[in-house]
Every structure is written in C-alpha cells, then in structure tokens.
Amino acid sequence: MTTNPPALQLYTLREQLPNGRREVLRAVSDFGYGAVEPFDVRTDPAQQREDLDEAGLAVCSVHAKALGADADVLLAGARTVGADTVIVPWMDPERFADKETIQALARELNEGAAKAARPRTGLAIAVRSTPPSSSSPFRKYSAVCTSLCLL
What we know:
The protein has two domains: 1-60, no CATH class; 62-151, no CATH class. It is 36% helix and 12% strand. It has five helices and six strands; from the N terminus they run βαβαββαβαβα. The protein has helices spanning 21-30, 45-55, 71-81, 99-116, 147-150; strands at 7-9, 35-37, 58-59, 62-63, 85-88, 124-127. The strands form two sheets. It has a three-stranded parallel β-sheet with strand order 1-2-3, with no helix packed on it. A three-stranded parallel β-sheet has the order 4-5-6, covered by helices on one side. The longest helix has 18 residues, at 99-116. The model has no long low-confidence stretch (mean pLDDT 83).
C-alpha cells in the first residue's frame, strides 16, 4: 500500500517565498509536511529542486496550465522539480460555452496529455477546472451527456 505524506500547496505561501524560499521550505518541513506542490516551475526549477532536497520535501504535483505555447517549458519545469502529475488549474469560462468549445478543449487536453507522457517527460495531466455555474459541468447536452462526458 502506498502512503502519501501530508502536502502543502506552495501557492498559499507565494508572498513569503520570494523573500526566503529555503527558510519557508524548512518551516514547512518542520510543521510536519513531507511534500509540497510548487506553483511556479518556470522560474529556476533546478534551484527549487535543490531547496526542496535541502528541506527534505518531496513534490506531489504541480499546478500549471501546461497547454499550448507554454507546455514545453512548464512540463520540463515540473519534471525538474520532481513532479509526476501536472494539474491544469483553470480553464476560461468560454471553454465551456457549448458542445463545440468543450470538444475543442478535450482535444487540447488530450494533445497536452500525449506531450506530457513522452518518454523524456513521463508526466500525467490532470484537470482541476470547474467552469462557472452558468456553464455547469453537469449541463445536459443530450439525455445522457453532460459537459464532463464531452471532456
């Protein structure tokens, strides 16, 4: 059975990190966390990995919109800090406007997942996107299909 250590999303400490990332990471570790989720893997991911190692922290995943033109740099950063999963955190509400835009989003996510899974990268893509209530993921497009099934 695999056990995962308690993890902290570093986005919650984004204002403190620029003034002393090593100290912040040591404090996170001292509080009993065993892993973190970095939020900025574009900026010096190699140094982030060193700082994480020094603090004794693993990486559980990263939030990064690793699609389109930014995909390569964000996927490389995620791999460098030690993540195995990249969570796409947000999609613009227009992406859920109708069946066609949802299907286009699904194609883009599938392309991103294929790029992430390449042997050199070996990452999984997850989606944490929750469309606004007016574009509910449970909006019906047919008797048996919602926005989520279109994705």
